[in-house]
C-alpha cells in the first residue's frame, strides 16, 4: 500500500513542494507523500505533518490561544520549516552518528571498526589534506604581526608572505577582523573577477560578485528574491542537490522538476525543460528560474557546450533566470570533457547583460581544495537591473558580510600560484595528485558498482559522487514496506548497519518513480577503496541472497 | 504634508511591518509610509513600492506573463525583500562611500580628509587591534603543520600552541577544513558550555548550543521557525537594532513594537509590554516571542536584574519565547551595572527547561575583541521540545555548518587565557585597555552631545553606541520636507557632508513619533575623539544658526 503512494507519482506530474502544506489547511487532505522526494526517509517529519493535520483546524484561520506551558510546538511553527528536507544530513546520518558513539563506547561491538562518511562532499573529513599555499596565506592574514619577523621566512613560502601582504593591502586598514563591504572586500573581488576573465576569456565585473559563506547562502538569497508564494516556480533537475528543494520549500515556492535521462548518462534535454515549463504554466505557476548543476550533483554529468547553448537559448526565450551551480568546475575526470561556464557560453553566443539574467555559484568547499569548513564562496550575477541589484545588495547588507577568511580563500582559489612562483610546483603537485586520485577512485567505485547484481552506475565525468541505480527484488521492496521505509532507505540502512558505509538514499535527491538509487561520494582515501569495495560487494551479495525473488 | 505622514503614527498604534505589502494588493492603498521605521531614509524603496502599486494589478491574482527581455523587475520580486530595510548600511553609508571615492580621486576637494564610519559596531575598521592570543590560535589552527616546528616557538606564545593542539584534538581527524557537525564542533561546544556555566553559575548543555556565522543567521533561524505569516507577531523594542525589523519583514511576520522610555534612561516597562501584547492580540495577532537587547542597541542601557525577572515572569505567563540578544555582554561601562544573562536570571528564579523557551544570542563581533570579520557566534536554546529542536537542527543542517575559524574564536571568547597562562597578562592588558578606553570615549562623546543646543543624550551604560535626541527647529523640519527627506536623515546627511562623520538616523531604529535621534558609535580611536567632538560641535552650531526658528 505504501509503495503505491511512494512510487505512484507520474513522471510527468507536476510536484508542488508545498502541496503537503496546503493539504494541512484543506478539509480533505490528499495523501501525505505525494510531493517531491516522496519524503520516505522522513518518517519523523511525516508524523509531524500528520500531527499538524490532526490538530485544531482553528490555527489556519485565527491565532491559536497562547500555550502558556509550551509556546512552541511542531503544530505552531512555520509549516515551511516542517516541509523542508535535507537528506544529505538526514536519517541515515543520524543513525551513523549513533553507531559511531556505540563504536566508541563498545569497541568491537559492531561488524566494522569505523564509520565511512560517503554521504557528503566533505573531502578533508576523510583525510584529504589542504593545499599548503592556501593555508599559509590564511594563517598569515589571521596573524599579520608575524609577517615581518625573521622566523616567518623559515616557516612560510616567500610567495605566501608576498600574497598575504598584497591581500592585507587590499583591506582598508589591513583589518582582517572588520566587517567588509557587504559584497566582500573590493580588492578580493577584483582578483576573483580577473580569475573569471582568465577562465572564460570574457570580461567580469567585480561589482557583479557577492562573496558568501559557501554557496548555500547565495542560493537562499536568490530563492528569497524570486519566490513570493507557491505561485512562483523554480525548474530543478531530478535528481538534484537537496539544497534546492530545501530552499524552495523554506521560501514557500514550487519546485518544478525536470528529469535528467539516466539512459543517456543523465542527459539534460531541452524538450523535457519545455514540457515541464508548459505544464507548470498551464497550472498557473509563474516559472521564474532554471537551476542547472554542472558538473552534476548527484549525477556527475558534465554538460556539452552545445547542450549549454540550447539551455541559454531556452532561458532567454522563456524569460527565466539561469541559476548555474558551478561549484564543481574544477572536478572534471573524463578526459574528453571540459567545464564551460554558462557565462562564457552565453557571451560566446553574443548575449550580454541585456539578454539573460544569469547567476553563477562558486564555492571553496569543492574543487581539488575541498575547504568545506572555511565557508567561502561567491555568486556572480549578471543581467539584473540596477534596481533589482540594489535589492540584492540590501539583503546581503542585513547579514553584513561573509567571513573574511572565506573571502580570502575564494580569491586564492580563483588566483592560485602561477608558473615561476615559489609555491607553484608544490601547489601543482598537490592539486594534480588530488584530482588524479579522485578520477581513479571514481573509476574503481563505478566498476565495482557495475559488477554487482542489479546495479548499474553511470560514469562520474565530474563532481564528487556516483549515483548508482539498484534494481531491488520484490521481496526487498515488500520488506521495506513492512518496515514502513522507502526501499532505497531500507537498502542504505542495511548497508550502514553491515559495513559502516554511509550513503544517501536516492529519494533524498528525487528519482524517476519506481527507480531506486543512492549517492556515494568518491572521497574516501585511495588506500581505503579496496576495503570499501570488498565490504560493499559482500554486503550486496548477502542482501541479494536474502531478498532475491 | 509629508511630515504628517512620517510623524503621524500614534505611539500606541500597532505597526504591521507588512502593511505596505498588503496595501499593494488592496484597491485603495493607505499612505505608503505608515509602517515601522516610517522608512523615510528609503526614498528609493518608497519609489519602488510606488512603482509596484502602479503596476498591473493582475500580478496579485494570476502569474504575470513572462517578460522575455527582463524576467526580474522590482515589480516581480518577493515583496518581503522590497519591504525590508537595514539603515545601518543604508542611504547614508552609500553617500559616505561615494564621498570616500571622491576623496580618493580628488584629495582636498571636501571639507575633511577622511570618512569616519560611526554608523556600525565595527571596531577593527577604526583601528582597534585584535587580541593577540586569539589570532595566534586561529593562525595555528589554519596551518597546523607549523605547530611542531622550532621557529614556531619563537613566533607564538606557549599557551597559544597548547590551545591550538587542544582544539585540533577536538576536531575529528584534526580537519579544520571539513564541514563540522551542523551545530558546530562538539568539543568547542563543550568549551562554550563550560564558559556559560562559569559566567552564570548554572549548568549549560553543549547540545543546546548552535554555532553560527555571527549572531545574525541565528536570529534569522528563530524568525524562520516562529513566523508563518503576518498573523505571527514578534515584540521588539523601539528603538531596536534593525536586524530584527529586517528579519521579521523578510519572513513576513508582524513587528509588535514596545517603546523604551527615553526619560528613564531607556527603561523597559513590563506594563508597556503588556499593553502592546494585548493590543496585538485584540487584532488577531498571535504573539510568538519577545526580543530584548541587553545591553541595548542602539540605546546602551543595561537592564537591572529585578527588571529582568519581571520580563522572565511576563514571558512565562504569556507563553512567549524570550529572544535575548546578549552580544554586548562584555561591553559594560557603568561601574554600578553588571551583565546578567537571562538564563541565569530565569534559573535563579527556579525556572528550568519546562518553564520558559529562551534563546540567548552571542557573537564574536562585539565585546572587547570586536572580531566582526570572523563571523562567529552562537545561540543557546533552552526550553524547546525535542521535536522542535529537531526542526531547528534540520534547518541548521541545510547550511551544513558555520565557518570553523568563527567556531574556534567563539570558544576562545568563552574561554580566554586564565591566571597563570603565559598570555594571561598581555591578554588582560589588551582587554582592559580596550574596555577602559571605550568607557572614556563613551563619556567624552556623551558630554559633547549634551553640551549642544537642543541635544540630550542618555549615558551609554553598555554596548557600543550613543543615541542622542535632537530637537530640530521647525525651519529644519520644513527644509527636510522640501527636500523630501525625514528630518533626522536630513540632519545626518548635512553632518556627513560637512564633517565626514557617518551616523545613522534614528528612523532606521524606530523612535517615538515626533522625536528625532541618531546613532553614533563610540568606536573611533581615542586620539581622534577631540577632533570629532570639535567637528560635531562646529557643524551643529552652524546647522542651528542656519535653521534656528
From TrEMBL, chains A, B:
* Transferase is among the record's keywords: yes
Give residue ranges for domain Aminotransferase class I/classII large.
173-528
Fetch the InterPro entries from UniProt: ALAT1/2-like, Aminotransferase_I/II_large, PyrdxlP-dep_Trfase, PyrdxlP-dep_Trfase_major, PyrdxlP-dep_Trfase_small
| Matches recorded under SUPFAM superfamilies | PLP-dependent transferases
Q: Required co-factor? A: pyridoxal 5'-phosphate
- Pathway terms, separated by semicolons: Photosynthesis; C4 acid pathway; Amino-acid degradation; L-alanine degradation via transaminase pathway; pyruvate from L-alanine: step 1/1
Tell me, how does this one assemble? Homodimer.
Say which family it is in.
Belongs to the class-I pyridoxal-phosphate-dependent aminotransferase family. Alanine aminotransferase subfamily.
Which PANTHER family does UniProt cross-reference here? ALANINE AMINOTRANSFERASE (PTHR11751), ALANINE TRANSAMINASE (PTHR11751:SF29)
Which protein is depicted? alanine transaminase
Q: What is the lineage of its organism?
A: Eukaryota, Viridiplantae, Streptophyta, Embryophyta, Tracheophyta
Amino acid at each position: 500500500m505504501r509503495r503505491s503512494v511512494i512510487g505512484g507519482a507520474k513522471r510527468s506530474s507536476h510536484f508542488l513542494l508545498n502541496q503537503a502544506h496546503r493539504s494541512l489547511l484543506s478539509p480533505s487532505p490528499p495523501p501525505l507523500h505525494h510531493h517531491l522526494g516522496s519524503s520516505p526517509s522522513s518518517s519523523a517529519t511525516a508524523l509531524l505533518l500528520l500531527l499538524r493535520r490532526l490538530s485544531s483546524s482553528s490555527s489556519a484561520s485565527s491565532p491559536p490561544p497562547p500555550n502558556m506551558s509550551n509556546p512552541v510546538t511542531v503544530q505552531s511553527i512555520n509549516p515551511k520549516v516542517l516541509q523542508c528536507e535535507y537528506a544529505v544530513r538526514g536519517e541515515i546520518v543520524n543513525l551513523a552518528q549513533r553507531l559511531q558513539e556505540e563504536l566508541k563506547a563498545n569497541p568491537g561491538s559492531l561488524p566494522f571498526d569505523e564509520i565511512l562518511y560517503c554521504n557528503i562532499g566533505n573531502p578533508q573529513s576523510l583525510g584529504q589534506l589542504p593545499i599548503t599555499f592556501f593555508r599559509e596565506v590564511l594563517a598569515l592574514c589571521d596573524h599579520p604581526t608575524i609577517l615581518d619577523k625573521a622566523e616567518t621566512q623559515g616557516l612560510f613560502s616567500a610567495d605566501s608572505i608576498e600574497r598575504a601582504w598584497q591581500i592585507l593591502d587590499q583591506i582598508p586598514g589591513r583589518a582582517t577582523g572588520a566587517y567588509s563591504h557587504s559584497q566582500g572586500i573590493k580588492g578580493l573581488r577584483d582578483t576573483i573577477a580577473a580569475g573569471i576573465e582568465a577562465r572564460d576569456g570574457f570580461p567580469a565585473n567585480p561589482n557583479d560578485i557577492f562573496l558568501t559563506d559557501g554557496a548555500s547562502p547565495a542560493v537562499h538569497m536568490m530563492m528569497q528574491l524570486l519566490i513570493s508564494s507557491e505561485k512562483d516556480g523554480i525548474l530543478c533537475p531530478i535528481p538534484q542537490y537537496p539544497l534546492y528543494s530545501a530552499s524552495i520549500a523554506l521560501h514557500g515556492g514550487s519546485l518544478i522538476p525536470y528529469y535528467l535521462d539516466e539512459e543517456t548518462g543523465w542527459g539534460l534535454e531541452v524538450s523535457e525543460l519545455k514540457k515541464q515549463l508548459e505544464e507548470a504554466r498551464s497550472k498557473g505557476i509563474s516559472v521564474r528560474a532554471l537551476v542547472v548543476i554542472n558538473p552534476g550533483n548527484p549525477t556527475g554529468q558534465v554538460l556539452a557546450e552545445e547542450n549549454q547553448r540550447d539551455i541559454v537559448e531556452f532561458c532567454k526565450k522563456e524569460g527565466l533566470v539561469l541559476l548555474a551551480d558551478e561549484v564543481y568546475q574544477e572536478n572534471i575526470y573524463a578526459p574528453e570533457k571540459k567545464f564551460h561556464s554558462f557565462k562564457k557560453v552565453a557571451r560566446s553566443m553574443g548575449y550580454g547583460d541585456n539578454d539573460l539574467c544569469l547567476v553563477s555559484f562558486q564555492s571553496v568547499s569543492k574543487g581539488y581544495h575541498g575547504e568545506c569548513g572555511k565557508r567561502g564562496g561567491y555568486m556572480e550575477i549578471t543581467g539584473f537591473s540596477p534596481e533589482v541589484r540594489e535589492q540584492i545588495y540590501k539583503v546581503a547588507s542585513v547579514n553584513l558580510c561573509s567571513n573574511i577568511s572565506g573571502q580570502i580563500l575564494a580569491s586564492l582559489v580563483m588566483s592560485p600560484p602561477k608558473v615561476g612562483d615559489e609555491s607553484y610546483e608544490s601547489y601543482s603537485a598537490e592539486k594534480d595528485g588530488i584530482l588524479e586520485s579522485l578520477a581513479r577512485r571514481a573509476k574503481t567505485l563505478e566498476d565495482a558498482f557495475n559488477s554487482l547484481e542489479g546495479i548499474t552506475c553511470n560514469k562520474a565525468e565530474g563532481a564528487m559522487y556516483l549515483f548508482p541505480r539498484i534494481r531491488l527484488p520484490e521481496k526487498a521492496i515488500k520488506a521495506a514496506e513492512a518496515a514502513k521505509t522507502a526501499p532505497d532507505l531500507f537498502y542504505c540502512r542495511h548497508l550502514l548497519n553491515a559495513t559502516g558505509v554511509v550513503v544517501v538514499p536516492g529519494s533524498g535527491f528525487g528519482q524517476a518513480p519506481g527507480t531506486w538509487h543512492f549517492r556515494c561520494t568518491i572521497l574516501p582515501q585511495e588506500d581505503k577503496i579496496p576495503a570499501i569495495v570488498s565490504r560493499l560487494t559482500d554486503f550486496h551479495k548477502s542482501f541479494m541472497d536474502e531478498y532475491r525473488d
